[in-house]
Design a protein that fits this description.
The chain is mainly α. The chain contains four helices and two strands, in the order E-E-H-H-H-H.
């Protein structure tokens, strides 16, 4: 790609915008999707029962102990509904292959 060549981008009713062809960001298709996607999977390393809280903690970027405490508190206050949600996640979430 040529770095110094200017390309005009038509933006419909808005004014045209000039930008460098192949600028520092490249094209949208050049993004490595394997690195940008995070998938919800049950944890094989951080588990107490089935790894559901460990998987959610990895996806959300929080400590798994915090989610476990919130799950127990919600179970006590929510009359068992969080246990059903945990069981559904246990059944539906695939296990993390990386051990």
């Amino acid at each position: 790609m040529t770095q110094g060549r200017q390309v005009r981008v038509c933006s419909g009713p808005l004014p045209d915008v000039a930008g460098a062809a192949g600028g520092e960001y490249g094209r949208m298709n050049d993004i490595d999707t394997a690195k940008t996607k995070t998938r919800l999977r049950r944890s094989t390393n951080d588990r107490m029962v089935a790894g559901v809280c460990g998987g959610w903690a990895k996806l959300l970027g929080v400590d798994a102990a915090l989610l476990r405490i919130l799950l127990v508190a919600a179970t006590i206050l929510g009359v068992g509904t969080p246990v059903l949600i945990y069981a559904a996640c246990w059944i539906l979430m695939p296990e993390d292959a990386a051990a």
